[in-house]
Amino acid sequence: MIRFEKITKNYPFKGGIYQALRGISFEIAQGEFVSIVGPSGCGKTTILNIVGFLDVLTSGKYFFKGMDVSGFSDYKRTTLRRKEIGFVFQSFNLLPRLTTIENIILPALYLNTERKSAISKATQLLEWSGLKDKSKTSVLSLSGGEKQRVAIARALINSPSVLLADEPTGNLDSKNATEIINFLKELNKNKKMTILMVTHDMSLSKLSDRVIKIKDGNIDENN
After folding, report:
1. Would you kindly state where each structural domain of the chain is located, as residue ranges?
2. Gap between the Cα atoms of 119 and 145, Å rounded
3. CA 200 to CA 210: how far, in whole Å?
4. Residue 164 region by backbone torsions, left for phi larger than 0, else alpha for psi between -120 and 50, else beta
5. Tell me: the pLDDT tens digits for 16-72?
6. Confidence at 221, pLDDT banded by 50, 70, 90
7. Which of 205, 213, 196 lies closest to 160 in space, CA to CA?
8. pTM of the predicted model as reported, rounded to 2 decimal places
9. With b meaning 16 or more CB within 10 Å and e meaning fewer, what string describes 74-96?
10. Contacts for 71-80: CB closer than 8 Å, 24+ residues apart
11. CATH assignment of 2-219?
12. Strands (E), 38-184
């Protein structure tokens, strides 16, 4: 599903270059639930951004579903991102003036999906998420755990092949954090969703199938 071959990523920094990734190589199979862990600034989110076509690599090769996407144009990367990738963020990124179901259907409307069809699928996702009775509720009235479930449902509305979660439990207490990880595990098991999650919490990362540890822009082979 996903293969990195000696990927580097450099950013301009104070008149020089900051090397965020220093030749990362790994593979993620379809249907895997993989956690990426490491200290702040080690390159975790950079990896997620490249996988999700939000950023471009400096050198190396990135293969997605067997395609070498390393040199894809902005247009091709945007098209792939909208069709293949679902994003879940630490801060939820929900629009406060919209209801729960209105937040969920937005990505589908961006792909010109018929509104009626989008609402039908969003209703199914809400039922699966245990939030069907809150479809017309303002997201401002939801708990942190409920907001994150809505964010996950929104990420699934276009039936992506990969779900990318960037610190999805960072704004939650331990109880809600565990519930969200179990929610992701259920999604992975029952819907065969490939999940790549960035987290700093080792206890939560161990609930995934596999852990990739990053240190100073490299895979930490010593742990």
Report:
1. 2-219
2. 22
3. 15
4. beta
5. 999 999 999 999 999 999 999 998 889 999 999 999 999 999 999 999 999 999 999
6. confident
7. 196
8. 0.92
9. eeebeebbeebbbbbbbebebee
10. 77/53, 78/53, 80/53
11. 3.40.50.300
12. 59-64, 67-68, 85-89, 162-166
